[in-house]
Write a structure and sequence with these properties.
- This protein is α+β, with helices and mostly antiparallel strands.
- The chain has six helices and 13 strands.
- Strands 5, 6, 7, 8, 9, 10, 11, 12 and 13 form a nine-stranded mixed β-sheet that branches. The protein has a four-stranded antiparallel β-sheet with strand order 2-1-3-4, with no helix packed on it.
- The longest helix is centred in the first third of the chain and has 9 residues.
- The radius of gyration is 22 Å and the shape is elongated.
Amino acid sequence: MRLDKYLAHATGMSRKEVKRALHKSLVTVNDVVIKNSAHKLKEDDNVNFEEQSIAAPKPRYIMLNKPEGYVCSNDDGTHPTIAGLLHDEVRPDELNIAGRLDVDTTGLLLITTDGQWLHKVTSPNHKQEKRYLVETADPIDPSAIDTFAEGILLESEKHPTKPAVLEIIESHMAYLTITEGRYHQVKRMFAAIGNKVIELHRESIGGIVLDKSLEVGEYRPLTTAEIEQVQ
């Protein structure tokens, strides 16, 4: 990790404050004064600020119940962002989201500062299942169950989707479980069979299920058991 990022995360200082501290020779790494904010730290490096040892920042793992109308970014000129819902729990420059949701899609978002954990959630190689509750404009033809299970070629794609599990609940409502994260995938899958998604809500990613006690827009830290589901 870069030295400026390490200090900012561990102390709560802004990057500007960290840069000022470095310039004043207030930071040492292994008893050597370091002024370069981009200095790369090793795992066993000893970092001190004003002669006080600074422990490595702990990774953060957060579950958020995303509302409709919010975008999964830290800056947008049109819509409110989920960064505004987190009350500084995660700094904007470390806002890493495992599987972004469209502005009109609701439900489970996983946010972390742990890059390796994030990769395990999002990498197709790990095949983390994502389960959605889908409401459609037209009745869902039962033949879609087999169509999705076999894989479906989406518009402008060269390869069909991976097998997906469709569970029809009502005529216009179903659960869909996929293992990929293609652009607007769920909406495009239903469009490919001549239907339109009018509401979309993500309920789970892998073994992590959206906490039903979380109101829309609320969040909480992941439990140790939830974090280890991904491991």
